[in-house]
Design a protein that fits this description.
By secondary structure, this protein is an alpha/beta fold. About 40% of the residues lie in helices and about 15% in strands. Strand 2 and strand 3 form a beta hairpin. The chain binds iron/sulfur cluster.
Length: about 325
Amino acid sequence: MALVGIARLASQSELLEAKRAVQYFEIPSRSILNRTKPSMPFQWTINPYRGCEFGCKYCYARYTHEFMEMDATEFEDKIYAKSAAAHLLRQELGRIDRKQHIAIGTATDPYQPAERRYERTRSILEVFARERGRYLGITTKSDLVLRDLALIREIARANVIGINLTITTLDEKLARLLEPRAPRPALRLDAVRKLSEAGIPVGVFPNPVMPGLTDGERQLDRLAKAARDAGAQWFGGGPLFLMPSAQKIFLPFLDEHFPRLAPVYRSLYQRSAYLGRDYKDQLRDRIRRIRDRYGLVSGPIDYQPELWTGEEQGELFAR
Ligand code: SF4
């Protein structure tokens, strides 16, 4: 039947924009605590989600979707909430030493949009609120962490807890390009302020530090000063680690938005996912100088995602 009227107009309309469709799944897990490699400052990690809707262009954790036979580009569109997270944690905590450190949010953001609805991170914090003498860290780019402030305060009464806010840049436009769906840097700084005012130890990490984009001394200095003014106690950063799965997204992104930097990065990361020793040393010295200027300390964890990768490989099981 021939379309008429508004139906015909609709069928002939030009597509202006197609919104991304994010799909959420629940995935069974064998365990929720993942053992890290030796020599790490934390012995266990918890990542309540696989995939992360924030979709940062440099995200190193895209490889985790490749384990599930998916393309790295699906990392931000197919989000998997781990089932029975709190139940598993209750069972597993009894088997680990109280003095061992547990880091939440090393691979994916525990306060990404899915958390508003599925509350897996919150359910995990509820378990910790009944614990004593544990060592816990949470790393996030989201001010949604403030939703759980009362719970975090409760945990802090009988355990040691620190919150790390990741802020790569204060430049809102650059942040929007690099981290398209993450909360604005100003919201993250506000979260630092509110956590600090509530007496929760908090720090800022500008990770990953990206050559030519976020590594300028003045940029990092401004960020450290803003972090200190908001009440951060620590500040530390490490250079971008760019595995092939992350290169697939990041290099075309540079071609489009920073064409002059694209060949530089191709050459820097041609042979390895790491930057060379010289750059690392320079950056470490720069950050140390800045930290000293503002009386900040280096913080509970170093940015070493290369040591964090692979920890979840054995975790999934099929029912
Ligand atoms: S917030 Fe973290 S886990 Fe999420 S996309 Fe960005 S870098 Fe990856």
